[in-house]
Amino acid sequence: MKMMKRREAMVRAAANMKSARGMTLVEIMIVITIMASIMGVVGVFVFGAIDRANERTATIEIQQLNQLVNSFYLTTSPNRLPNELEEMTQGAAPLTKDIPSDPWGSPYVYVKNGNRDFEIFSVGPDGSEGTEDDVRPE
């Protein structure tokens, strides 16, 4: 009797192992689809945050460059604006060691509009001047 019970237990264990084979292809595809959907939603938020951070970084750097140009104007005799931003890194007492590139790797655009008027801006992620993604000071 004990032998039969033991054998029945072994048969049931083998049947249970046979039925627990793993996941089917359809189940795996459903899981992958759900994971891809979640990653798509998360990716939109992450990349949006990166874009906003790059724009904020460019705005801060433009403000700093504006202050450097104003300092250059006040420290030169006679007072004048630099012809280009790199001019502030030269001379006996340079105002800065280097001029940073914008967060997208392009140089900042510096435009002199007269003896005391100037503008500094970034061409933005597309690298083209005059498009709607240009970053200009507020």
Automatic annotation (TrEMBL):
The chain crosses the membrane at residues 25-50. Signal peptide: none annotated. Gene3D superfamilies: Glycoprotein, Type 4 Pilin. Residues 46-134 form the Type II secretion system protein GspG C-terminal domain. Keywords: Membrane, Transmembrane, Transmembrane helix. It comes from the Bacteria. This is Type II secretion system protein GspG C-terminal domain-containing protein. It comes from Lujinxingia litoralis.
